[in-house]
Amino acid sequence: MSVLLLFAQLVAIAFGLPVELEARQAVSTLSVAEIAAYKPYTWYAFAAYCKPANTLTWNCGTLSPSHQEVTEPSSNIDSREGSPSSLRVSLLRTRQVLPLISQSSGGLITGLNWPGNGYELPLLTDANLLLLPLLPTLFPRTSPLVLVHSGFSNAHALSARDVLAAVRTGLSTYGTNQITLTGHSLGGAIAIIATLYLSERIPGVNLRTITYGSPRVGNRAFVNLVNERAVMNRIDNKRDLVPTVPERVFYAHTEGEIHIVDSDAWVSCPGQDNTNSQCTIGYVPIALAGNIDDHSGPYDGISTSTGGDC
Description:
By secondary structure, the chain is an alpha/beta fold. Helices cover about 30% and strands about 20% of the residues. It has helices at about 1-15, 30-35, 40-45, 50-55, 120-125, 150-155, 160-175, 185-200, 220-230, 280-285, 305-310; strands at about 30, 80, 90, 100-105, 105-115, 130-135, 145-150, 180-185, 205-210, 230-235, 255-260, 265-270. An eight-stranded mixed sheet has the order 1-12-11-10-9-8-5-4, sandwiched between helices. A two-stranded antiparallel sheet has the order 2-3. Helix 8 (about 185-200) links the parallel strand 8 and strand 9.
């Protein structure tokens, strides 16, 4: 079955078979204040590109004053005090996946990323093109018709239980049921799968997920389920190629795209794969129209180089 599915995907892509598209829904432009509200989450998403020694004392950018002391979810967390004007940051490294957990006025923020230079995504996972059911050891109650990219699923599994334990401790410590997940590139893909995972493992939790330059992660059954469990936003930069893969033949995006256009305005694109000319599909209708350099940002002034130099 998996071999046949892969063959069907390749045939459809090679011969340009039609893909079901959403209508070109009306778009709207975000205000300066609305864009600024995303900035704390952007810093968290790009924290994995910082050197760990700097991130531990939070020298990586400036966070919103609403963010308070960071939780210490488990004995595996390496944390230290920064200067009086900085935040205390706790990092958990598990097989190279980097969750960053912090308390804010809106609950917990969990940043999930894969440390690297921002171009590692195709090398790490895109060879595993198969859509497969979620791992039953992590998702025992999820329908086998809910399919995800096998490479992204395996990447999520590497740290899923450690992240769950850390988040549970953070929720208990601060008496909140609000969680925001965020990540860039592969980190965004992991955050989307983690959204479904946490929704099943922590009943009653309120989830919001904000990703940056995330690829498509699963089939329509998967994204519909995730959209039901959380408030979803994915921020895509100009002609970034990564949000256009894998192909729409069998994959779909979660809803809530915000597309940064050439003028640097942020445009809200309702739906899952909005085909409006101001959305990513409109900018990158075919791969040759894309620009991989846009994958690193900037997202309101923040990019992989911002993290790497901090």
